[in-house]
Amino acid sequence: MEPERWAQVSRIFNSAIELDSEARDAYVERECGADESLAHEVKRLIENHQKASAQDFIAEPAFANQSSSGSKTLAAGQRLGPYLILQHLGTGGMGEVYLATDARLDRRVALKVLSREVAHDRRRMQRFQQEARLASSLNQPNILTIFEFGEINSLNLLATEYIEGETLRHYLRSHKLKLTEILDIGIQILSALDAAHEAKIVHRDIKPENVMIRSRDHVVKVLDFGLAKATESASSTHASDLEGDTQYKTAAGMVLGTVNYMSPEQAQGLTVDERTDLWSTGVVIYEMVTGQAPFKGRTKSHTLVDILENEPVSLSEASTFAVPDELTRIVDKALAKKLDERYQTAKDMLIDLRKLRKQLDVEAEMRRSVGPALVSKAQTTTSIAGTPTVEASGWQTSRTTKYVILLFAAVVVGGVIWFANTSRHVQEPPSQTTVAPVTEQSLTYSITVQKYRNNKPFEEPFQLAKEMLFERDYQIRLNINGPKSGYLYILNEGPHEKGKPAEFVVLFPSPKSNNGSALINDNERIQIPENSWITFDQEKGTERVWLVFCQKAISDLEPIRGFVNDETKGLLTDSSVRDRVQQFLRSHSTDKPTVEQNTEQRQTRITSASDILVHAIDLEHQ
Amino acid sequence: MDKLSPSKPHEITALLEQWSGGNQAALDQLYPLVYEELRRLARSYMRREPKGHTLQTTALINEAYVRLVDQHSVRWQNRSHFFAISAQIMRRILVDHARQHLQAKRGGGAKKISLDEVMIVAKERSEEVLMLDEALANLARLDPRRSQVVELRYFAGLNNSEIASVLQISENTVMRDWNLARAWLYQQLSEKA
Question: Would the pTM of this model clear 0.80, i.e. be above it?
């Protein structure tokens, strides 16, 4: 380009980009007059200016940009004792967090490298170690498990379970939460607090940033138990003013958190106890319902004044959907400024939330089964009219046998709850409008999944809440429990190959349990297999697990016990027995039981109105 | 702490003054001295323990300046000159590393480069750095000042007011130059791609 031409282009370009987009084209055309190619040149440059600026093209200096990785303590691929660093996950108030593998157990961990500000303060380190040790003793599914705390190469490290998911803060930004979901999250936070408070550990920093939602199954994990105390410094409770910024810093310059979730006693720098966590949970629930924190002033000082002196806009007013009065009452009670008016224990608040959650389920069930006339009655009596979500989650009822276990996330760590509270759920309050048939059969089951690699456990086992597509490395266990005694038969039907008969393998009874008998006792818990896992083979397909339960022994199925031996390993090798079994299953599976999934307890209850319960669980694998 | 490189501050200061006085030969002598210092500093920055602050190229050049230039005998313009030359040098360092890194990745280069050197230019930015260097050379032929604005900002990490003082132009002009140069570079690179 000629220098004169370039001078023209740059002059018009510079003036044009300062104009509004509407005025811009007219200006360019006016300035360029008849010179169409000049106008074209300028317009093209303006277009590229917009793209460059939208894409932050070369916005960061070549070297400074890389400073973010330069300031990291550890690099991917680096080894630190037993840990191999895989990825930098983030940097927070405590220090940096990395995804790493622990070579000793071949498991993934989140590795926190404590910032030097924390590590160099001996008093705080002692407190931190003490709290970490206490917190690591907490064993509750909603509490992030602390594996190890120690010092390697003069770095203070904290290894915790790694959760693939997002923080509640993130989740709130991208999802509109349903009422049931809000309650489920609140219930899980409080379950975590209940366990921690039992162990005399106060969290002190409950906020959406410290609550993780696991992508795979939406299980809530509360992070950093007891650690807030260790990172607090005397100056932090009376934080200095940072206008318009609700984050405040300690003297060491470390961001400690927002003040929005602080309790009045915290805001005043007084001693805090368990009830502080209940306040903060109230704030979190309020925010989940309304999208806004209840106390959120223009500046931090305004927020603190609100926390100490002002009542928030009531939950029902601030919400965009109808909120049950009971939830408003619960949140109000959690947000009582006076300590003795607040919930006194996490358990009390937990009980209230659970009750409300159950009530919503019962009402949803009534709506479904009774029709509109009764529904309106249910609504008026419990004031959940217009609640957008009552039909979702909890015991999801569907009249289908086919429970296809489909794809959900892959990387997993989690606790296993073996038959937790099974009996309680079997006695779920029945809907008043359905008459329970006398011959009703029911079983509750859950599926435990664990990822293996090279025949070694690769991740912690977890209990399946939803469908999942199993990959080769997954192994499963089936946990079954029935309220009444009866005869239980479990068979695995392999993927069908065209032109070949289906293959059946007996999973229960087995030679060890019950001495090969199919009869189980009241509330007996059956785990299949007893001492190992069900593995998937290389073939893609659907493995079907048949559950058959009856008060009496089933003559068509009794012969399968003859194949439970070391020779056949449960495989039905006799075609006449196999055909008889297949015939039986085919004729009985038309009468489908009711399937209710409890996502919170990760259990499925199947109920049949007839005297023989036949249910198929489909496990899809690839 | 590393000892200062063998070059004497007085020597560098004298060279800077000669160069600003119009002596191009002074630049040839100055260049390798500053280059070595910046390279050494860049490496040590990468190794240094994190102190919570963000690493900035300007911090690095400032540090080099303090180490290399005799503070008592320098007129203030020399600081600008130092930054201008440092920006060129940083550009060369970064481009060299990017090239080595890409060669190493493609297996073409037999030369083994150390981890901390590779880290100076983040992997994914190597291509960008090389392409930009080339496009910037084209821009320099068309419009030297605007090309220098980009060099100071992208390669030396200077902010608008620092660039304004190095180039002796207003901040407003720096902003306008940046917009134009960036649009032009974006256009060049996107058309090439």
Answer: no
Q: Does A52 contact B53 at a Cβ distance shorter than 8 Å?
A: no
The residue among A42, A169, A160 whose CA lies nearest residue A110 is A160
Spatial separation of the C-alpha atoms in residues A202 and A275, rounded to whole Å:
9
Contact between A551 and A484 under an 8 Å Cβ cutoff? The reply is: yes
Answer yes or no: do A58 and B143 touch at CB < 8 A. no
Task: Please state, rounded to an integer, the average pLDDT across all residues of chain A.
Answer: 75
Are A185 and A211 in contact by the 8 Å Cβ rule? The answer is: yes
Confidence (pLDDT) at A185: 96
Task: Test B54 with A68 for CB contact under 8 angstroms.
Answer: yes
Subunit contact B186:A57, Cβ cutoff 8 A: yes
User: Which residues make beta-bridge pairs with A490?
Assistant: A508, A547
pLDDT of residue A221: 94
Is the CB of residue A164 less than 8 Å from the CB of residue A412?
A: yes
Closest chain B C-alpha to A62 CA, distance in angstroms: 6
Question: In angstroms, rounded to a whole number, what is the distance separating the alpha carbons of residues A398 and A596?
Answer: 7
Which residues in chain B touch residue A62, judged by CB atoms under 8 angstroms apart? 57, 94, 121, 125, 128-129, 132, 154-155
Does the N-terminal peptide bond of residue B9 adopt cis geometry, omega within 30 degrees of 0? no
Provide the residue type at A134 as one letter: L
d(CA A353, CA A281): 12
Rounded to whole angstroms, how far apart are CA atoms A269 and A304?
11
Measure CA of the first residue to CA of the last residue in chain B; give whole Å: 45
Per-residue pLDDT at A230? 52
Active site residues of A: 205
Above 60 in pLDDT, residue A421?
A: no
**Which pLDDT value is given to residue B44?**
65
Judged against a pLDDT cut of 90, whether residue A220 lies above it is answered with yes
pLDDT at residue B157 tops 80:
no
Taking contacts as CB-CB distances below 8 angstroms, the residues of chain A near B129 are 62
What's the pLDDT tens digit per position in A233-274?
Answer: 433 333 333 322 333 333 222 234 468 898 998 887 778 899
Provide DSSP, B61-123. HHHHHHHHS-TTS--HHHHHHHHHHHHHHHHHHHHHHHHHHHHHHHT-------HHHHHHS-G
